[in-house]
Structures are given as C-alpha cells and as structure tokens.
Amino acid sequence: DAKTTQPPSMDCAEGRAANLPCNHSTISGNEYVYWYRQIHSQGPQYIIHGLKNNETNEMASLIITEDRKSSTLILPHATLRDTAVYYCIASRGATNKLIFGTGTLLAVQP
Amino acid sequence: DGGITQSPKYLFRKEGQNVTLSCEQNLNHDAMYWYRQDPGQGLRLIYYSQIVNDFQKGDIAEGYSVSREKKESFPLTVTSAQKNPTAFYLCASSIPSRAGDTQYFGPGTRLTVL
Questions:
Q1: What confidence category does residue A94 fall into, taking pLDDT thresholds of 50, 70 and 90?
Q2: Which of B41, B56, B103 sits opposite A98 (nearest CB)?
C-alpha cells in the first residue's frame, strides 16, 4: 500500500471550511484513498473514501487530483466536535490492511 | 443497534498474566481485525481474519494470539510473551464491496500492565 504524507497539525475557525491535504504520490491504480478520524481515546471513525472521482457524503467531501497523487478532505462547516486526528490512507482493500500514519491533528477554534 | 463492542473499556493486569480482550460484532461482517495504538502513534495491525476458523498475522503478531470460532466474535489474547503490552487495543470489522472495503471500529480497550 502506498505511503501517505499529511501535515502534523492544522487550525480552523468554527463555522469555516476545513481543508485537510494528503499526498500519496506513489499510489497505484487499484488503491483507494480512505479518510478516518479519531477523537481522543475513541476508535477511529470512517469518513469517506474514493478511487478516482470526487466523493461527497453527509460528513465531508473528498477531492482527488486527476493524477491521483494528492487529495483533500473538506469539512464544509467545521464545529468544535470535529476536533480530532484525521488519517489519510491508501489501500487496495483486498486484505484491507489499513496503514495508519500519525495523521493531522485538526483543532477547531471557537 | 448494530455495531462493534469491545469489553472492557479499561483493563489492568499484573505483569506475566495472560489477558483476553473481547470483540463482538452484529454487522454480519466477514472480516475482523485487531490493531494496537501507542500514545501519539498510528494504528498497527496485530491479526486479521477474513473468514471463520481462519486468521493471519499482521505486522506485530508476536506475543498475541486470536481465535475465530464464530463470525461475530474475534477475541485477542495478550500473552506474557508480549514485551510491552500496555496500549490501546482496537477491533474492527469489514465486508467486501466492489466500491472498496470499509472498516468499522469498536470503542477500544485500554490495557495497562502493572
């Protein structure tokens, strides 16, 4: 599975959009991009995933560049409850072994 | 309510004792996983099981054992051979999908070995 690179931390004002970047320059054609988040001392929560096309659900939007070497998770209206560590993962999903790095700590400020 | 349950939430054991962590799911998922998380770190895969009565080692299986006798249950035993067992343990399950598998996680068990 491809390695991903994320900034260690980001701040966002409450009510504004939070844009979390992820680089996955070695991603292969059959690897999906997954996003999870983990609030302190809880299990990770699935947010969204995609292969090539942009995706949107009730939680977030996922924008994947045309060359698939990077992606951005967008939380359209961040709230204080969105403060968490966000993990970007590239995985084939076959054995579904998810490799979690250290992620991005998003701090939503009031 | 469908989901994954792990018990207990906090567990304390003396050094040298084996301890078994419970993981149950009622999502009818075929695959189940155990991860370990240390402070400030990401998750590392211990064991996974794609089907009943079958399981494979993950990246850090030494000192751990599992069983998968029922689809709903995937208990993890932390043995005395595990050198640094104090950690946060997470169980997950997934079902194959043409749109990419998705893992769903339980709330975790925090194990402290004294």
A1: low
A2: B103
A53 — contact with chain B (CB < 8 Å)? no
| Per-residue model confidence as pLDDT tens digits over A26-82 | 998 888 999 999 998 899 999 999 999 899 999 999 999 999 999 999 999 999 999
Round to whole Å and give the CA distance between B65 and B85.
Answer: 13
Q: Do A43 and B90 touch (CB under 8 A)?
A: yes
CA distances from A52 to A49, B79, B100 (A): 10, 43, 12
DSSP H helical ranges for B21-102: none
Closest partner residue to A100 (CB to CB) among B31, B40, B43 is B43
